[in-house]
Specification:
The chain is mainly α. It has eleven helices and two strands; from the N terminus they run H-H-H-E-E-H-H-H-H-H-H-H-H. The protein is elongated and about 55 Å long.
């Protein structure tokens, strides 16, 4: 290994380690609140609606919503970690030190994205593991579920990097969460089956990318699905590639990132 290659690897590991420590050190703010909020969704919706909607596609309602609630938490955690980290680095101008380090733009984008991916996975898996005893659920295909979780977390973490670069104010970061991601998650079949919707809304749901992610996670967990899960996996993988390409572009040419 050449000295240059060693510097690249060391710089990448340093940035990735920083991104991990960033949320681990304040775990009471970054990990516990989303876990508790998601469990409240499971308990409140499961108890309140479970008495009226006992089963969906032959699956008890509480089990039916658990994969979607866990994925919703995973998405939010992955996105918020990377978007706020990149935005803070840009606002405080210590992004300059990262940009002049012996790392390529792709490595910088990947380090940020992997840090957010890990946080999203921790939150999502935590919700799922803690919620399983309440729902009485078990995982039919854990390998497929893990693949979906990693891909979805990677996708929204990379999207967070794009938003962190492009955002001019912190309001722009939270705008994506509150006005785009969360509404899409709620309308993505987390709490209901697409077959329960009127035809017009059912068609609109098919244009929601989060619907395919939730549907694939539900299939891997319960073997219940509104769509064919294998083309869905291809769609999720394509979205992950597209999001990372966007993160790479943002680090390379993003506005207000370089003087």
């Amino acid at each position: 290994m050449t000295l240059l290659e060693s510097a690249f690897n060391r710089s990448f590991r340093t940035l990735l380690g920083r991104e991990i420590l960033r949320f681990v050190r304040v775990w009471t703010q970054t990990l516990i609140p989303p876990l508790l909020t998601s469990l409240l969704y499971v308990v409140v919706f499961g108890v309140a609606l479970g008495g009226r909607i006992r089963e969906v596609d032959g699956v008890p309602y509480l089990q039916y919503i658990l994969p979607g609630v866990a994925l919703m938490s995973l998405i939010t955690g992955a996105y918020m970690n990377t978007s706020t980290s990149v935005f803070d680095a840009k606002r405080e101008r210590y992004i300059d030190d990262i940009l002049i380090s012996p790392m390529s733009d792709a490595q910088i984008a990947l380090a940020y994205t992997l840090g957010g991916t890990l946080r999203g996975l921790i939150v999502g898996v935590g919700v799922f593991v803690v919620g399983m005893p309440f729902a009485g659920a078990s995982v039919v295909n854990p390998v497929m579920l893990l693949l979906i979780a990693v891909t979805v977390a990677f996708t929204f973490s990379a999207l967070g990097a794009v938003v962190g670069v492009v955002a001019a104010r912190i309001d722009h970061v939270t705008f994506m969460t509150n006005v785009v991601i969360q509404p899409l998650a709620f309308l993505g079949g987390v709490f209901y089956s697409a077959d329960m919707l009127p035809p017009a809304l059912r068609v609109a749901t098919l244009f929601n990318p989060i619907f395919y992610m939730v549907d694939a996670a539900r299939y891997a967990t319960l073997r219940a699905s509104d769509t064919n899960p294998y083309p869905t996996l291809a769609i999720v993988a394509a979205l992950a590639a597209l999001a990372f390409a966007g993160a790479w572009w943002a680090i390379n040419r993003g506005p207000n990132l370089r003087y």
